[in-house]
Structures are given as structure tokens and as C-alpha cells.
Amino acid sequence: MSTTFQLDTATSRAHPTPSPLRRLSIPAIRQRKLDGVTARPIVMLTAYTARQAQLLDAHCDLILCGDSLGQVIYGLPTSLQVTVEMMIAHGAAVVRGSYHAAVVVDLPFGSYEGSPEQAFATASQVMAETGASAVKLEGGAVMADTVAFLSSRGIPVMGHVGLTPQAVNTLGGYNARGRSQLEADKIVSDAQAIDQAGAFAIVIEGVVEPIAIEATRAVACPTIGIGASAQCDGQVLVTEDMMGMFERVPRFVKRYGEIAGLISSAAGQYADEVRARTFPTVDQTYQPK
């Protein structure tokens, strides 16, 4: 028996209630791809808060608490300033707000690259303090030993190749990767190295489509595309991007909503009513009995 979270209308807070539903397991996600075929593509979106996780949970196989929260939540210029403490705080909230999807938490820049032992110390802390099902780290062949080290010690790892935001300074920006033959070959070989090291899935980001397809076919584990190809074994987007929270979004994002406009409109209506003293009315105030 797992735990679901429902909105208590008396307090507007999430409270756990027993439910017979079970959270998707990492082995179940890995087994979606059999003999190179994923009959049911994997759905993943990002979440950083308990309420956001509640709203996404029923629709997703995986929820990623990504280090993109640096830009989305904190207004930072890149994800490089994100800390382990930030990831733990938000990752724990996402786990509390979900009961169906497996939750994956990003390991932030500088917290795992030094050695497999450093990665294990960080990943085990994240897993223990958030209750997440897995962690995600960036890098290809250079991180294969670390992926194997973590996987063999009970920590499921999602890899991330192609455009790796934590390496933005080395890459020189957020441009699509794989346009040269040398870079294309490296992306495919990086994916293979991470796959063979034991990753249960691999994010392929910002890669020209033929290379994303080639990498997907070259690995046994599922691939999750973002700015890659519909032929990947699943897809992920930053929820705020696809819901229209920002004016500018990457070209690979399809906007499925316009939440920013709704929020601005509602706030404007509220402001007008406050200034006109038409809010609150008797319906929103406590009257003598």
C-alpha cells in the first residue's frame, strides 16, 4: 500500500490518505523497452513542488525534479548555482505530492563528478532524504564508471547525453549537438557507455534527430528525448515551458497551455476589485451571528 495526497479543502494543504495504488518501479520503466522496442512510450515531466506533482502524477510514468529549478524557480542564469540542499528540499516535496510516477532527482553540478565515491555520497543522501526512486546525472563515457558504481550499490541512475546544461560553459551555449560527424559519433558512443554501465534510462537532449534515433537504436535501455526525436522511447519537457509560463521557450517545446496569461489576468482582476473596494464581499468575510 502506498500513499496518495489529496487536497484538503478545509486547510488547502495536502494530507496523505491510504490507497492500494503502487508507485511505478524503476525495473518496470526499464522493461518498457524489450528487444529494442518500446510499445508504450514513457511520459516524463518536471515538477518542483508538491502541488505541481499532484497535478502531473496521474499522467506521468516519471517525474523529474530537475536542476532546471535554478532558472524556473529561483531565477538563476544557469543550473550551475543549484545546490544539493535545493534539490533535496524540492525533491522531497515532489515525492510527497505523488504516488504513481517514479520520481527522479537531478544531482547538481559539482556534487558527483569528482569520483564515484563522491557521487555515491551525494546520491545516497538525495535518495535517503527525498524518498526518490532514482537520480539523474549528466555525462557520457567519462561517467560510465560512476554509473556502474552507483548501480551496483543499489542506486538507479538515469543518464543524460547530448546537450548537457551543466557543461554549458564547455559547450559554448545551448545549441543543438551532433551536427559534426565527430560529435555525432561521440553522442552515440556516450549513450552506449552509459547504457552498458547500467543506466536504466538515458535523456537525449538537444540532438539533431538522426543522431537521436541512432542513439536510441544503439542502446538497450529506454531513451527519453527532449529536443531530439519522437522515435525516442519517451519524452520529457519542463512543465513551465509547455504550459506557457514564460514568454520565450526553446524551439523544441510545444506549448500546451498559456498559464502565464491566466495568472496575469486573474491578478489584474483582483487588483481592480481591491482598488474599487468590491473585494472582499460578504461572501468572503465573517459576519456576526
What's this entry about, in short?
With 289 residues, the chain is of the alpha/beta class. The chain is 36% helix and 19% strand. It is built from eleven helices and twelve strands.
**How many E-type strands?**
12
Rough outline? globular
Give the name of the CATH architecture.
Alpha-Beta Barrel
- What is the CATH level 1 assignment? Alpha Beta
Contiguous runs where pLDDT drops below 50 for at least 5 residues: 1-5
CATH-defined topology: TIM Barrel
Q: What's the main sheet like?
A: 8 strands, parallel, barrel
Percent range of helical residues: 25-40%
Helix- and strand-based class?
alpha/beta
Q: Output the radius of gyration.
A: 21 Å
Number of domains: 1
The amount of beta strand, in percent, is 15-25%
- Distinct helical segment count: 11
Gap between N and C termini: 45 Å
What is the averaged pLDDT score?
92
**SSE pattern, N- to C-terminal:** EEHEEEHEHHEHEHEHHEHEEHH
| Major sheet: arrangement of strands | 5-6-7-8-9-10-11-12
CATH homologous superfamily assignment:
Phosphoenolpyruvate-binding domains
Secondary structure layout:
Layout: E1 2-8, E2 13-19, H1 26-30, E3 33-34, E4 37-38, E5 42-46, H2 50-57, E6 62-65, H3 69-72, H4 84-96, E7 102-106, H5 116-130, E8 134-136, H6 144-151, E9 157-162, H7 168-171, H8 181-197, E10 201-205, H9 209-218, E11 223-226, E12 234-237, H10 239-242, H11 259-275
Parallel strand pairs: 5-6, 5-12, 6-7, 7-8, 8-9, 9-10, 10-11, 11-12
Antiparallel strand pairs: 1-2, 3-4
Helix pairs in contact: 2-4, 4-5, 5-6, 6-8, 8-9
